Amino acid sequence: MSEMVSEVITLIIMAFALGMDAFSVGLGMGMYKLRLRKIFNIGITIGLFHVWMPLVGLFAGKFLSEKFGVFASFIGGLLLIVLGGQMVWSTLKKGDEKVITPIGFGLLLFALSVSLDSFSIGLTLGIYGAKTVMVILCFGIVATILTWAGLLLGRKVQSWIGTYSEALGGAILLAFGIKLLIAFW
């Protein structure tokens, strides 16, 4: 019994560490003018990606090398740079049109970018034979909660800094993407 409790605690800590990027990116994305319903949907989407990606990683972990996990971080960094750059660019332009928003395809890019590291962790956990249900439940629940927290905090900050909030959000995404790329090299 104590072995199972130890494994759950380890998985929750790991899920929290993986979910912090969802929190950070959620903080940036929360600076869009989002309604609570959209924030709820974004959190659920991120949570589902944090279930799906490690699940795929767990199954693929038996077949793929560890080098693919590093490549996943590289792709995630590039996606965050594209999202952040678009947010900063849209505030510099005079028009209100946005190329990428946290709706539809933009939401899928957002979810993919913050869950790619869950895939690489899933690869490792698959190699070591972790319990699949516990992994996906911990990762999904923690990522959803942290995403909601980031989005709600970003929404609050957006009201404090007004029109520059989207540029700040984009800068956060850019910085996080650059950090992932630097870690890749």
UniProtKB/TrEMBL annotation:
Superkingdom of source: Bacteria
A Pfam cross-reference name: Mntp
The entry's keywords: Cell membrane, Ion transport, Manganese, Membrane, Transmembrane, Transmembrane helix, Transport
Broad class of where this protein is predominantly found: membrane
Residues annotated as transmembrane: 12-32, 39-64, 70-92, 104-128, 134-154, 166-184
Cell inner membrane found in the keyword field: no
Membrane topology label: Multi-pass membrane protein
Keyword Ligase appears in the UniProt entry: no
InterPro entries per record: Mntp/YtaF, Put_MntP
Subcellular location: Cell membrane
Stated role: Probably functions as a manganese efflux pump.
Protein family according to the UniProt entry: Belongs to the MntP (TC 9.B.29) family.
PANTHER family (UniProt xref): MANGANESE EFFLUX PUMP MNTP-RELATED
Name listed for the protein in its UniProt record: Putative manganese efflux pump MntP
Species, as recorded: Neobacillus rhizosphaerae
